[in-house]
Design a protein that fits this description.
Blueprint lengths: L1 H4 L9 E2 L2 E2 L11 H12 L8 H15 L1 H6 L4 H15 L14 H4 L13 H18 L4 H11 L14 H8 L1 H4 L3 E4 L2 E4 L2 E2 L5 H8 L9 H5 L5 H11 L6 H6 L18 H7 L1 H10 L12 H11 L5 H25 L7 H29 L2
Antiparallel strand pairs: 1-2, 3-4, 4-5
Bound molecules: zinc ion.
Length: 382
């Protein structure tokens, strides 16, 4: 850190702006204040009363605000990143409340963008790398801090950042040098300035770097079906669990060897599966027919794979009918799931009419809110 700041170590306090000052590798112990802050923040939330969506938003706020300052300055040890991700994952999936022992979805899956089947949460390691690349950018432009001036004076001298030999140097400096091989594919410089993938860039962009270095997965066909133009986040989250096959349902619980009844709550079917509950079950089909009575939809497959493919194909366009159709379909799946969970926990089963009413009443509330929003926008335009 002495090298980082350009000051002599002996003259500095141990902490500066709440961050430890050090010249060597950032240790797990030095990161204890960060982990403490994350732990305290999470402990202050009442997790039992929050939905997945509510929890997810809080987790995002932890990852994006509490850790950002640290990640823009240091390369956090892998164990620290794992600890923070575990704290967030346990909170999100309700682990530690005694109810569940295993995360519903592995953390890595959530960190893919929505178009790649995830929830678009940042992967911390690659984000950290992208943030720290800012220092290299500053070095190439010879801008930013005393440290950059110091690096040029004593490390690079009259040479080039790309050719300077690796010793001696602080831990951070050596790490930056080590990342050159990865970065030189996209990053270059000349007397005119700095280039990212051949384009002259005035400002450093963490997002551009991150896009190259983040973990990637295959594009999914159902991105639009869940995320485009729907306005009920808790339903979107639930349908994401169903479509991604993360929903914890009868046949899975049976496969894990957990005790309980695995049958469908709506009909006598002895084994509840995703395909049964959200496509084959007679109650689902009847509710579907009633809700889509005014649509000119063709009949669709009677299994989940057919159901999902049908919905994707029907609702892919951004026309009103498709948007409404998507919203109804999501609301139906969510209502079936909530009703199923309520009954599993001892609640009384609604009849078919009740289930249909439930979906309609939710949609009416949301559509009324939407109408209000549109009306206020129109009125503001005058
Ligand atoms: Zn059934």
């Amino acid at each position: 850190m002495a090298e980082f700041s350009g000051y002599k170590l002996g003259s500095l306090p141990v902490r500066y702006l709440g961050l430890p000052l050090l010249s060597g590798k950032l240790t797990i112990r030095a990161c204890a204040p960060l982990i403490d802050r994350v732990t305290r923040r999470i402990a202050s939330w009442k997790s039992k009363t929050l939905s997945y969506v509510g929890k997810f938003q809080l987790v995002m706020s932890v990852l994006y605000s509490l850790t950002q300052f640290w990640m823009s300055i240091f390369i956090l040890p892998k164990a620290v990143i794992r600890s923070i991700e575990k704290l967030c994952s346990d909170f999100l999936w309700g682990l530690g409340d005694g109810a569940r022992k295993k995360a519903v979805v592995a953390w890595a899956r959530i960190t893919y963008p929505k178009k790649e089947g995830g929830l678009g949460l940042r992967d911390m390691s690659s984000w950290n790398f992208a943030c720290v690349t800012r220092h290299i950018w500053a070095i190439l432009l010879k801008q930013g801090s005393l440290w950059v001036a110091w690096i040029w004076e004593y490390r690079i001298k009259r040479g080039s950042f790309w050719d300077v030999t690796t010793k001696p140097g602080s831990w951070l400096w050596l790490k930056l040098l080590k990342s050159r091989d990865k970065l030189r594919v996209w990053l270059s410089d000349d007397v005119e300035g700095v280039y990212w993938k051949g384009d002259h860039l005035e400002k450093f962009s963490i997002k551009k770097v991150w896009e190259e270095v983040r973990p990637k997965s295959r594009l999914v066909a159902w991105n639009a079906l869940i995320w485009k133009g729907s306005y009920i986040p808790k339903n979107q989250f639930l349908v994401w669990l169903v479509v991604s096959d993360y929903i914890v349902i009868g046949d899975k619980i049976q496969g894990w060897g957990e005790a309980g009844s695995y049958g469908c709550v709506f009909c006598p079917c002895p084994l509840e599966t995703r395909s049964h509950l959200f496509a084959e079950c007679g109650v689902y089909r009847q509710a579907f027919a009633a809700l889509f009575v005014n649509f000119t939809c063709q009949n669709h497959g009677n299994q989940w794979s057919g159901e999902r493919a049908w919905a994707s194909q029907q609702f892919q366009k951004r026309i009103e009918a498709a948007l409404a159709g998507r919203m109804i379909w999501q609301a139906l799946i969510a209502a079936v799931w909530r009703e199923r969970c309520k009954v599993k926990y001892g609640g009384k089963l609604l009849d078919l009419e009740g289930l249909i009413r439930l979906v309609k009443s939710e949609l009416i509330v949301v559509l009324a809110q939407l109408a209000e929003l549109v009306a206020s926008k129109v009125l503001n335009a005058f």
